[in-house]
Amino acid sequence: MTDARSSLIIFSPSGIVPVAAPVRKAAKRLSALGFDAQVDESALLKHQRFAGEDEVRLAAIHRVAQTAPHVALATRGGYGLSRLLDRIDWPLIAQSVERGTAWVGYSDVTALQLGALAHKATGPAKVEEGVTAGFWAGPMACDDFGRADSPEGGDDVTQDCFVEAMTGELEAVGFRAEAGHDGLTVSGRLWGGNLAIVQALLGTPHFPKIKGGVLFLEDVNEHPYRIERALLQLHQAGVLEQQKAIVLGAFTEYRKSPLDRGYNLKTVIQYLRTQIKTPILTGLPFGHVPVKLTLPLGRQVNLVVQGRDAFVMW
Q1: Which residue among the candidates 218, 222, 223, 228 is catalytic per the annotation?
Q2: pTM to 2 decimals?
């Protein structure tokens, strides 16, 4: 895969990268997978909890867009992109997509992805077979390719799915959903990402107004009551009822409270199903977990459920 299409730039648009080792390991691992992996000049800078001051991170995004590599891969999430949304050159981002760039990440990178959708910088919803340019919810350099606890640098499923997506070979993903949705078939634009970011963008110019979509969500360090509150805000704002389906990924690393008394994520989902008619599926391998799929944001997809086997095809 060492051709002009394999160029990959690792950049830091959000939170600080505490140590350089995971980035270096990620670059080495990605090179072994066939990419011409380069690290952006400001990827390891530090300012407070950010990967450099706002102007530095904004310049990094624009620099990557101007270079237009085959893949623009974020180091990590954290927090920081919300500060930049009003100043991002969205036409420049759109031009990078037209030139073939696939922007990849999740977590805080959801802000960049949804902003691009809102500002029509993601490319068309329907594309020719094998086209990889656009925005992808998928792995990031540090946690997924630079893991110190894995000699290979990360989970095999995560890496294989990413490589297939970036080479244009990935046309569908599957997962095991809970029972109760057999026969469900819907079509719509795939969008979403980190729930806290989706909630934060609601009511701003950077929130995409997508009707009839397939909305997927994940989060980390959020207690189920906070997850419920965010979902209810989206519901009460009319967002959830406008979707063809809601697909929930991983919601991890929250602390239970003695006040919960049986209240958990399962009861949150049960309650939400009494409030909206939109089908809510669970089990999507995506979020702050080692095993995650790579998903095409903004693409027109078909969601099909057979028994408990769910498939997302594009």
Answers
A1: 218
A2: 0.96
Task: Give the tokens for residue 200.
Answer: 């934060």
The active-site residue, picked from 70, 181, 206, 288, is: 288
Query: In this predicted structure, what is the pLDDT of residue 107?
Result: 99
Exposed / middle / buried, residue 256 (Cβ in 10 Å: 0-12, 13-18, 19+)? exposed
Q: What is the pLDDT of residue 2?
A: 45
The CATH number linked to 182 is: 3.50.30.60
Question: Any residues with CB less than 8 A from the CB of 73 and at least 6 apart, and which?
Answer: 8, 9, 10, 11, 30, 104, 105, 139, 140, 141
Which residue from 57, 51, 41, 52 is spatially nearest to 78, judged by alpha carbons?
A: 51
CA angle in degrees (0–180, nearest 5) for 5-10-16: 165
Q: Would you state the pLDDT for residue 130?
A: 84
Instruction: Answer yes or no: 288 catalytic.
Output: yes
**Are 155 and 29 a contacting pair, CB within 8 Å?**
no
Are 182 and 144 found together in one domain?
no
Consecutive 10-residue runs of the chain (314 residues): their mean pLDDT?
Answer: 74 98 97 98 99 99 99 99 99 98 99 98 87 97 86 82 98 97 98 99 98 99 97 99 99 94 97 98 98 98 98 98
d(CA 13, CA 15): 7
Q: Which of 166, 183, 206 is the last residue of a domain?
A: 166
Full residue range of the structural domain in which residue 118 is found: 4-166
The active-site residue out of 14, 70, 107, 223 is 107
